[in-house]
Amino acid sequence: MTMQKTVSSSFNGKPAELIKGQSDAALITILIEPASGWSALNLREIWTYRDLLYFLTWRDIKTRYSQTALGPLWIFIQPLFSMVLYTLVFGVVAKLPTGGIPYPIFSYAGLLPWGFFGDAVSGSLTSLLTNRDLIGKIYFPRLTLVLSRILSSLLDLAIAMLVLFGMMFYSQLAPNWTLVFVPLYLMIAALTGMGIGLCFSGIVVKYRDVGNLIGYFMRALMFASPVVYSIELIPQEWRMVYELNPMTNVILGFRYALLSAGPAPQWLTLGISTVLAVGLFLVGLFIFKRVERNIVDIA
After folding, report:
1. Coil, strand, or helix at residue 32?
2. Full residue range of the structural domain in which residue 127 is found
3. What does the alpha-carbon distance between residue 225 and residue 217 come to, in Å, rounded to a whole number?
4. How many CB atoms lie within 10 A of CB 183?
5. Do 64 and 159 belong to one domain?
6. Is residue 39 part of a domain?
7. Looking at the 3D structure of the chain, how many domains does it have?
8. Whether 150 and 226 share a structural domain
9. Contact at 8 Å (CB) between 168 and 175?
10. Is the N end or the C end of the chain the one with fewer CB atoms within 10 Å?
11. Residue 190 and residue 150: Cα distance in Å, rounded?
């Protein structure tokens, strides 16, 4: 919890200059109270505690696949298994169009940013719940718990993309020059994911089943995003509303930058999605900062 100190030159209700024989320490009253408004965010603390952020990120990387038989191989297995499953259902059986791109590559390019977004949601959602013992012992910016999960997920994404580049090389597909916008798409995905997770992070501590509801919401949102199908299947009259979903533009941009497949995100809808992602993140951040004050009592 962010604190601010107020120093008063009084003692027992009398002015300090009327008190004789008292030490200077006895004349100082320290009032500790939570900060309010924009100052409550105090994002500068993240930089002050950057060493802790590095430590928490390294902890997440080491413990994510600890006590597992396959260890870091799960970085590749999870998206590959989903790719094979969706290829059989939507590529072989349903034969959905992909604009000439092999369906395994098409779906894998959509699953990677979606997996990163899912990690952002789950990491933010459970940040207070899984670290409540640590929170009760020492003060540090609680947001570092969320950011450490994002950074570790970025490493997983970078490693998993090696498989995608290998598949592209085998299929003789070259990335588009718009590859330079991939960090922007990932930033939108991270802000959107953190915004959703932070909004409900405090509620999950008190009501654990809310996490299950968020899981169902994520499954529905996945099929409301062009992860396993092309946006060309969406009727033109609904396309504008459909593209207001920030993850729609993230997946479209990610896929277009890497595969030159499908339409490129429109600047207007991309800008709207960015504003929505930032707004959702700020709302979630304010809720998170309010909840973290009493998280030890709730837990």
Report:
1. strand
2. 44-298
3. 12
4. 10
5. yes
6. no
7. 2
8. yes
9. yes
10. C
11. 7
Token pair of 141, please?
A: 């910016």
CA gap 241, 243 in Å, rounded: 5
Phi-psi domain of 37 (left: phi exceeds 0; alpha: psi -120 through 50; beta: other): left
Burial of 235 (0-12, 13-18, 19+ CB in 10 A): exposed
What is d(CA 274, CA 266) in angstroms, rounded to the nearest whole number?
12
- Residue 214 belongs to some domain of the structure: yes
- The pLDDT, as a whole number, for residue 12 is 42
Q: At what angle do helices 210-223 and 103-125 cross, to 10 degrees?
A: 150
Query: Does the residue 264 lie in any domain?
Result: yes
Element (H, E) at 253: helix 246-259
Say what the pTM is.
0.83
CB atoms within 10 A of CB 265: 26
Spatial separation of the C-alpha atoms in residues 245 and 153, rounded to whole Å? 22
Give per-residue pLDDT as tens, 38-79: 445 667 888 888 999 999 999 888 888 777 777 788 888 888
H-type alpha helices, 87-209? 103-125, 127-130, 132-135, 143-170, 182-206
As given in the structure block, the two tokens for residue 200 are 């409900």
Q: Are residues 134 and 276 in the same domain?
A: yes
**Torsion of the alpha carbons at 101, 254, 199 and 203, rounded to the nearest 10:** 40
Question: Quick one: tokens of 15?
Answer: 């002015």
Angle CA 96–169–154, to nearest 5: 80
- Shared domain for 108 and 245, answered yes or no, is yes
Q: What is the pLDDT of residues 159-197, one digit of tens each?
A: 999 999 999 999 888 887 888 899 999 999 999 999 999
29/56 same-domain check:
no
